[in-house]
């Protein structure tokens, strides 16, 4: 028998593996299949462009893991943590830790859910691979934090912090929203909006920043994780194309999901804007430029032009996100500084070179609207702290403190009435999402209500910290923290403090 | 926004060293108007509307055998639709003819 080529091999390994149920009603075996109005005529036409079979998957993934762990061991053995250019970087890595790892784990469950409910072998194989990928990501990230927590604060009761920290409701609400959607919507939410449009900014510019500040371990985490994303993007892109081509009646449904999930994914990435613009002391790229490259050029001017022939237009609030790029990271850093005394990752006093870089990159907004806020911390790190708990957006759960990009001294906060109650959202994008499914979002977890119901304990703020899994000393401002002192001592021990660079 | 050129391309992990350099060189040889942008830990290589990567060109540059599936290790991201992917070539493109 002649050897099969890649295409034939892929077909032989992924097709005709399942059967159509004969003794049971197809609708009972796949109860979600028709619930969303999606019409499938001949889904067997669909195939994964990457055409991977299991043996090849295992081989490639094993190589990626070996590469990553080699870098990690070397970093850990050689005091890599002490050699980064500025320890505040690790506050950003903590933000990544509490936000991204739970998202990876949730994505693995979500992929399993999609594969269970969509009876197309090629989609099943791709979602199966992705489910394992996401678990791999969650685990290498946890391994990374386990070592870091010997050096840094905030992550030693990781599981508890992950469960209870108010900030974590942002990624959780996103994934819970997707997991409680139908399987096709879940696929568009994660594989398209999250993976194709936004993960690039998470893993590429942030990995570049890691390289620039000298955190080789994080570079390796970022790149190892991102190397799976090409496959995840291929799943999202080809699944979307298939749904659009199967039947015209799918087009308005897909458009509605793109409108919702573009904005939902954009908002979950709000904190990432600070990881690009603020936490690294050296930044290879700004959020604004990264957004222009990855979203405006590659998605709006690339992909969406191609989708026009199906009758698909840009997501409803695309224009709002373009306007907001001048404000996004500053507004989010301001939010983080308001609540840094009760968060697992700290804020920090901006340094003279930070003010300079931010003003150069954002000449129209930073000095005018944001620098005065950050300067208030020059004398006292808690000068900008907000008392109490933040009022969060009913949809994205980020504190509703975003400025209106058309009028940056005013808040963008929106209000909707539902069942005789007023619901607050952070922006027109989230308001639109709320009003499409108010019954879904009215069930959200409100930190203020949780506080009043005693979920946080009797004595606030004291009881908050055991509930969150860290102590007040692990929160607040970085350069005045015990963690910074420890890092300086570590450097002294290595003799790094004696290095003088001649200019 | 309408006048912008629509590019397709890929982000390649520079820890792939000489292999990644050979992939970039092959793309430059086999496509017109290729742009390479350096982001330190990765390089973005892009071309207007269509980009082809040929195994043989990479092999010529490396001076040895190379399997195109090895791209899975290095391709951190891509943009465009995958039009073809077999033993000999990978083609990424946008479909619209504008």
Automatic annotation (TrEMBL), chain A:
Query: Where along the sequence do coiled-coil regions lie?
Result: none
Lineage, top-rank taxon, reads Bacteria
Sorted UniProt keywords: Monooxygenase, Oxidoreductase
The record's GO molecular-function terms, alphabetically, read:
monooxygenase activity
Matching InterPro entries: Ferritin-like_SF, Phenol_Hydrox, RNR-like
The EC number(s) attached to this protein equal 1.14.13.227
Recorded hits in SUPFAM superfamilies, A to Z, give: Ferritin-like
Q: Which reaction does it catalyse?
A: propane + NADH + O2 + H(+) = propan-2-ol + NAD(+) + H2O
For this entry, the protein name equals propane 2-monooxygenase
| Encoding gene, per UniProt annotation | mphN
UniProtKB/TrEMBL annotation, chain B:
As for family, the record states: Belongs to the TmoD/XamoD family.
Looking up InterPro entries in the UniProt record yields: MOase_MmoB_DmpM, mOase_MmoB_DmpM_sf
Full protein name: Monooxygenase
Q: Which GO terms describe its molecular function?
A: monooxygenase activity
Q: Sorted alphabetically, which SUPFAM superfamilies does this protein's record hold?
A: Monooxygenase (hydroxylase) regulatory protein
Pfam families per the record? MmoB_DmpM
